[in-house]
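Every protein is a chain of amino acids, and every chain bends into a shape of its own. The fold becomes a row of whole numbers, each drawn from a learned catalogue of backbone shapes. The protein below has been through that process, and both of its lines are reproduced in full.
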Amino acid sequence: MNEVDELRRAMRAAERADRNGPDLAVIMREGRRVRRRRRVAGTGAVAVAVAAVVIGVGGTVARSRAPEPPLPAPVATAPVVAPTATADPAPTELRPRPVGAVVGSGIRYGADERVFYVVPVDVPELPGVTIGLAAGRRSPAGELTTDYLVNDVAGSDRRPGFHQIGYDPQARVPSAVPVPTFGYFVGPAARIVGTVDGRHVEARLARWSEDPRLVIFWFDPGVLAPGEPLDGIVARDARGRRL
């Protein structure tokens, strides 16, 4: 009788002793006896491989799976380096396209002339503001250079009255192309007069070709130095009434 037969005999004996299930104590005792006998076997004896058995609580016998091979040792890898983000190319400066006619002022900087023109603007939080007024220069070839742009920061760009007024941003620094004080008025203005240091200075006017209600005005640098703030400004109609 070999060792497997002896183990089976022990299991049958345990089952006869207790019909409710195998007697684990008997099986373990018989198993130890078999293992002891195997250990004292003579040198050179060939060991017989016996599959291990697992006894379930309910008496079910299941064969264990063969041991899984060990996982391979981790291999050192170089750290992953994210690609360096490249900077986007600098956006090309856009030149505002005039809406309507360009108004010449007669003020010159060498061969260039100071001009004013309306341009479209996009202010998402201000749906009522769609245009701005630019002070630029026009070359003899007709090329425009925008120096300064003003637009409303609230309400509507067509409400009656004065809108944003532009002053030379470099008033304290001498400039080769100073920007005259300028702006626009919506309404039937025939005269626009400013006050500075107690004296009155009159602006030059031109109506916008796309909407004659919009009156563009500017002050000649000879009567109002660029960048000098006004103390007050009024508009009057053709009859001299204040608007």
Residues 3-63 form one domain. Helices lie at 3-17, 24-39. Residues 195 and 232 are 5 Å apart (CA to CA).
